[in-house]
Amino acid sequence: MEVDVAVLGGGPAGYTAAIRAAQLGGKVACIEREPELGGTCLRVGCIPTKAWVQTAHALHDARETFAKLGVAVTEPQLDFAQAGEWKAAVVKQMTGGVASLFKANGVEWVRGAGRFTSTTSLAVEGGEDVTFRSAIVATGSYPINPPIPGLDSPRCVDSTGLLAQTEVPKRLVILGGGIIGCEFASIFERFGSAVTIIEMLPHLIPLEDEDAGKELQKAFKRRGIEMHLEKQCTGVEDTGSALVVRFGDGESVEADLMLVSVGRAPLVEGLGLDEIGVPTDRRAGIATDDHMRTAVPTIYAAGDVAGRWQLAHTGFREGEIAAENAMGHESALGNPAVPRPIYTDPEIAGVGLTEAQARERHGDAVAVGTFPWVANARAVMSGATGGWVKSIHETTYGELLGIVIVGPHATDLIEAGVVAIDAESTVETVADGIAPHPTLSEAIKEAGLVALGRAIHLPPKRR
Ligand code: FAD
Questions:
Q1: Hey, what domains does the chain have and what are their CATH numbers?
Q2: Is 437 a known active-site residue?
Q3: Is residue 186 within a helix (H) or strand (E), and if so which, with residue range?
Q4: What is the largest CA-CA distance in the chain?
């Protein structure tokens, strides 16, 4: 098959690139080896995990919130088989949606595993070979398996293995307190597992604003999730009926299942890239310029494999940029505000700089305001008052530098911060804007008012 643009991988970066190139008039083939399109995100990542997050939220609401709000229900039970069916149905609808979009845009899906044979051709195992004018590599990433003795036990699974469980483990150990580990900890504690997290660093979600990590630790502690921070796992023993997970200085914990979630690495091996002059790195992925172009001018890379971020939404944007340049347009990534959603309970989301990063860059010329949900009417009436919104700006020009949210619907609310930071807004633009009342979104404006020292809905700070 001869095309203008060949896209290797049908995940968020790849399918977006394919659709965008087709919109611009290109003849496009997308090579995907899995039986469904959508990649990690739709099949075994963002979408199925968040379907379970919804089940976990529903259980919590039924157990603790409904009665407060005057809705009487009998003791809610988890129907794990139905939760699994719901998850599968959501995944099917979303992956099927990508296949329909391909048809509607005239994108050809070549099913099979692709490998570059030259700077203008791909051999596809299981499908038709493809020659192209430009190609976009969007092969994603895979879970890292650390060299810890015993991890080859079938009781040690990665995120895909945990999503495939048909029974809730009584005792679940999670190795790694990053985003994926914490999201699963939050889900499975609600599902009834006794959850233990082992994390090497001093905080959970170590890349996020430190206060957000501490808030999550407090909430997890209240929920009975065991956390062993600054502890390394040294070995795992499968006794036949359970796992003994050793960590730190001779400590251990028993478990029925262990999630290994210590990070993901870009998938660059076996693609023939180095052979055709595109250098690859097992940790950093494929180096690209601001146009997503690799060292070979006809070949672009986007998404997890390009190594900048490991997020579906950055993959979407990188895919668009790669496609536009591949089709002869001029498009650059620049320095966009990237939201960082975390679907734990409480939810967490940040955009822009964390407080520590802001202070590192701007020294004392930084002001921070934190507005607690307990002072927001919509949060109070929802019975969800844990957490806060933090607004961070620099005091020379008043430019908004960051927003961090811990609490209800944080992952939806953060978009307001994305727009404000991309527009290089001042904190006054946000704080003096009129937010609808009563809404959760008011808390972003209110955090700005706190940072400016003019909070209305909080008592003045004692001098
Ligand atoms: P992928 O989605 O990994 O797609 C790559 C595709 O390429 C795959 O379908 C693969 O089969 C295919 N492929 C690879 N090699 C070949 C080959 N040689 N030939 C043919 N096909 C090939 N991100 C978020 O933004 N929000 C979230 O809530 C979120 N939750 C997550 C939860 C989990 C459990 C996990 C694991 C990840 C989560 N992510 C989330 C991350 C997100 O899934 C990834 O960042 C995103 O999928 C990356 O998109 P991509 O297109 O770069 O790669």
A1: 2-142+265-326 (3.50.50.60), 156-262 (3.50.50.60), 346-451 (3.30.390.30)
A2: yes
A3: helix 179-191
A4: 74
Q: What is the pLDDT along the chain (463 residues), one digit of tens a residue?
A: 999 999 999 999 999 999 999 999 999 999 999 999 999 999 999 999 999 999 999 999 999 999 999 999 999 999 999 999 999 999 999 999 999 999 999 999 999 999 999 999 999 999 999 999 999 999 999 999 999 999 999 999 999 999 999 999 999 999 999 999 999 999 999 999 999 999 999 999 999 999 999 999 999 999 999 999 999 999 999 999 999 999 989 999 999 999 999 999 999 999 999 999 999 999 999 999 999 999 999 999 999 999 999 999 999 999 999 999 999 999 999 999 999 999 999 999 999 999 999 999 999 999 999 999 999 999 999 999 999 999 999 999 999 999 999 999 999 999 999 999 999 999 999 999 999 999 999 999 999 999 999 999 999 877 6
270: alpha, beta or left? (left if phi > 0; alpha if psi -120 to 50): left
| Of 180, 221, 212, the residue nearest 407 (C-alpha) | 212
- Residue 380 CA to ligand 1 center (angstroms) comes to 37
End-to-end CA distance of the chain: 74
Q: Which protein residue has the closest C-alpha to ligand 1 atom 53?
A: 140
Pocket of ligand 1 (CB under 6 A): 8-14, 31-34, 39-41, 45-46, 49, 113-114, 138-141, 159, 180, 267, 271, 303-305, 310-313, 315, 343
**Amino acid type, 247:** F
Residue with tokens 């822009």: 352
